[in-house]
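Thread title: Can someone regenerate the structure for this chain?

I was given the following input by a collaborator and told the matching structure tokens would be attached. They weren't. Posting the sequence so someone can regenerate them.
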Amino acid sequence: MGFVKFLELLITAAGFIVPLAMLLESEGLPGPEKRAAVLAKLKKQLDEVGLNFPHWAERFIDPILGLLIDAVVAYLNRTGFFSHGEQSPAS
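Best answer:
Regenerated them for you:
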């Protein structure tokens, strides 16, 4: 599997993050626990639909998906998708 295919898989995975983050946002978990729960559910969802990452990336997949989760949630926070009590630094 080439690097471009790997990037396509990451973009597909990003689409799964939004509904998972919305679901877990309502549970009121602290940030690190919420992130870990989204990561676990994301990996399960990707496995269920048969999206497999290349073997060379398997040992790095948790940190890579964790960074992807952080990036998607940061973007959603910046755009006001989630309503929190504090403003983002860009505001």
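The mean pLDDT is 84.
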